[in-house]
Specification:
The chain is of the alpha/beta class and 667 residues long. It has a domain at 572-666. Helices cover 33% and strands 27% of the residues. The protein is built from 13 helices and 43 strands. It has a 34-stranded mixed β-sheet that branches. A three-stranded parallel β-sheet has the order 31-34-37, with no helix packed on it. Strands 5-6 form a two-stranded antiparallel sheet. It is elongated, with a radius of gyration of 30 Å. The relative contact order is 0.06.
């Protein structure tokens, strides 16, 4: 409850250098103490709490909470806030308890504002053809649909309205500084909503945005930062003179070291250092660490951009209207270049400069190499790379999100119906190319790309190994869960539990799911069955939670076709045959990975070690820095995986043999 100031309290405040045009507009809590309010000008409606604590600033400086040297206009100041040295004024803000505002210029809300909600961002198409409105709780998956499904204009219209309705509900002429926040050494903060536990230290300008921090996942904004028209979500940090204009920054992101970003979306755990982003859809785990690296007019996820990586969206003379898609897990090497439009397949590596608008989406895990201005495709070769496996294992470990409400539903699986479907398609294409062009040709052409004969044959083999690995994993998991005890129970044990999952799968920016599930979601939005973003996100969460049910439905059909026999007719002998193929493939790929890791310990890699010594000094220096091959954590994981999978395969085969033996005895 608030009350008016007493004449005695007004007298004390006046003696302490405070002034007000109308003391009746100032309300205070019961047991208010005016002791720690000095040199303050009050205007408009003011509410003030109690100041009974002390706070410690950088360097060990201790301050009594209170208000010192400031001008407050239309503000509510809760208990135990410290406001000290405001060079300009604080206007139209509600400052929650235990917050610190020290040495700033201006903190104000100017008229009605939505705090960045509802701003349109020109993502992917720099000319605005794919602009979407953003809001506090935007997920990568809703953004994906809004950005790429422009052929469903009514769907886009409905989703836009949902976002703008939310923005309308957020509209206010009063901002908030969340409890326990700290705003120190800043210049201008205008029309910004700031959540609890935010730390802002040294920012130059923040304008028209939301900082959605909370105690579980605080947000940090550092020195020299300029941000305009933005939403910054929990657990993220923007520091070191980074420039942000018209951007959505999701949970657990880091933009640092003078990074520059405009008209871009960054979702969970993205990192941007030194370089630049323009009209970028950065799905989860998009990472760029190096100077002279430009990401522009593209969609990425689980990507690592090498130094000097660049793309161009100026193909012709009609402006920057071209775009590119880099599917999940791709990498670019130093000084790589891609002329949009192009599409890079999942978990592929791009090397060199590419001008031919290639589409390698049917060839995941490939190298895309430039040679004499030609694009050379090496299909499937990344399945042999220990780096690919290392990446897939590091992503879950590097999840910086600590918020209990995770906006992005991320599936980290390296092999899934999404990638395996592409490998099935890629394998068919390679076989067709070989059939049409003959088995003796040294080089093949496909969609502006060259494929060398040995690369084609190796690609077919690698894709087959990966397909068997995935199919075998799925059937073994299914049998472990259902545990048939007789031969006759086997077909029932393999039955699918969901009808969803058949056919094409999609990667909705980190969410792997059947295309049919997304189609149903969109139909429900268009028909009015889903009327809010909360309902849409709930459906997306359900889709994510049911991944493995959907996966088995897909495997049920595709394994039958690949193996050549329906699963409803499977016998223990069929399972044994598949498990043997699975075991051979798993161990074969692991051996490739082990041999790839060995290269990191070869004599060639020791160059530069033991600088002033002989060969023995070189080896010893290398060993002390890098350790032994068998001590490497990744190598130990590979060897352990080989042992576990070998035993698992043998156990499943024994189980199937027991079913066969039991059936023979019964007959």
């Amino acid at each position: 409850m608030y009350r008016n100031l007493t004449d005695h309290e007004i007298g004390i405040l006046t003696m302490q250098g405070c002034s007000s045009d109308d003391w009746n507009l100032i309300k205070v809590v019961n047991h208010f103490l005016p002791d720690h309010i000095e040199n303050v000008k009050f205007s408009g409606n003011i509410k003030i709490g109690r100041f009974t604590k002390s706070v410690t600033l950088f360097g060990g400086i201790s301050f009594k909470t209170g208000i010192y040297n400031a001008w407050l206009h239309n503000c509510t100041i809760e208990d135990n806030v410290l406001i000290h040295n405001v060079r300009g004024y604080i206007a139209n803000y509600h400052v929650e308890k235990d917050s610190i505002i020290h040495n700033i210029t201006t903190l104000a809300v100017d008229g009605n504002t939505t705090f960045g909600n509802g701003i349109f961002i020109d993502v992917i198409n720099e000319e605005g053809g794919r602009s979407i409105p953003v809001y506090d709780h935007l997920s990568a998956h809703v953004a994906y649909i809004m950005t790429l499904y422009r052929h469903r204009s009514n769907l886009i219209k409905i989703l836009n309205k949902m976002v703008l309705d939310y923005a309308g509900r957020m509209k206010s002429n009063t901002g908030i500084i969340g409890a326990g926040s700290s705003i120190i050494n800043c210049n201008t903060i205008r029309n910004v909503k700031i959540g609890p536990a935010t730390s802002i230290d040294g920012a130059k300008k923040l304008e028209n945005g939301s900082v959605n921090s909370n105690a579980e996942a605080p947000v940090k904004i550092g020195e020299g930062v300029i941000m305009e028209d933005f939403i910054l979500n929990s657990g993220s940090s923007v520091t070191d003179a980074t420039l942000v204009s018209k951007c959505f920054i999701g949970q657990g992101c880091m933009l640092d070291k003078h990074y520059s970003a405009e008209n871009s979306l960054f979702f969970a755990n993205c990192q941007g250092f030194h370089g630049e982003a323009c009209s970028v859809f950065a799905g989860p785990y998009t990472v760029t660490h190096h100077k002279s690296t430009l990401l522009i007019a593209g969609m990425y996820s689980f990507m690592n951009a090498g130094s000097g990586s660049n793309q161009s969206n100026h193909l012709y003379k009609l402006g920057p209207v071209h775009q590119g898609i880099v599917e999940r897990g791709a990498k670019t090497t130093s000084d790589s270049y891609i002329l949009w439009p192009s599409r890079v397949g999942a978990f592929s590596l791009v090397m060199g400069r590419h001008y031919k608008h290639s589409d390698t989406s049917d060839f995941p895990f490939s190298y895309i190499i430039e040679s004499k201005d030609e694009t050379i495709l090496v299909p499937g070769i990344n399945l042999r790379s220990v780096g690919t496996i290392r990446d897939s294992k590091k992503w879950p470990r590097r999840d910086r999100r600590t918020d209990s409400n995770l906006l992005d539903k991320i599936n980290f699986n390296l092999l899934s119906p999404y990638t395996v479907h592409k490998m099935l398609q890629g394998r068919r294409i390679l076989l067709d190319i070989q059939h049409i062009s003959g088995t003796t040709a040294e080089e093949y052409s496909y969609k502006e790309m060259k494929i060398r004969r040995n690369a084609l044959l190796r690609g077919i083999k690698l894709y087959e190994m990966a397909i068997w690995k995935f199919m075998g994993n799925s059937i073994i998991t299914k049998l472990n869960n259902s545990k048939p005890v007789t031969k006759e129970q086997l077909p029932d044990a393999l039955q699918k539990e969901s009808q969803l999952g058949k056919g094409k799968w999609v990667d909705i920016s980190g969410l792997l799911c059947p295309a049919e599930a997304i189609e149903k979601l969109m139909n429900d939005i268009e028909s009015g069955n889903l009327t809010s973003m909360e309902e849409v996100e709930a459906v997306l969460n359900s889709i994510h939670s049911n991944y493995y049910n959907y996966e088995w439905t897909w495997v049920y059909d595709e394994l039958g076709e690949f193996y050549g026999k329906k699963l409803s007719e499977f016998t223990p002998e069929d399972v044994i045959a598949i498990v043997k193929k699975w075991k051979e493939s798993v161990l074969g790929i692991d051996k490739f990975l082990y041999e790839d890791a060995r290269k990191e310990y070869s004599s060639a890699v020791m160059t530069g070690f033991g600088v002033d010594g002989d060969e023995n000094a070189q080896v010893e220096d290398f060993r002390n820095v890098r350790g032994e091959l068998e001590e490497n954590e990744m190598v130990k994981e590979i060897l352990s995986h080989m042992e576990k999978k070998s035993k698992l395969g043998d156990r499943v085969i024994e189980q199937m043999e027991a079913l066969i033996k039991q059936s023979v005895l019964q007959n």
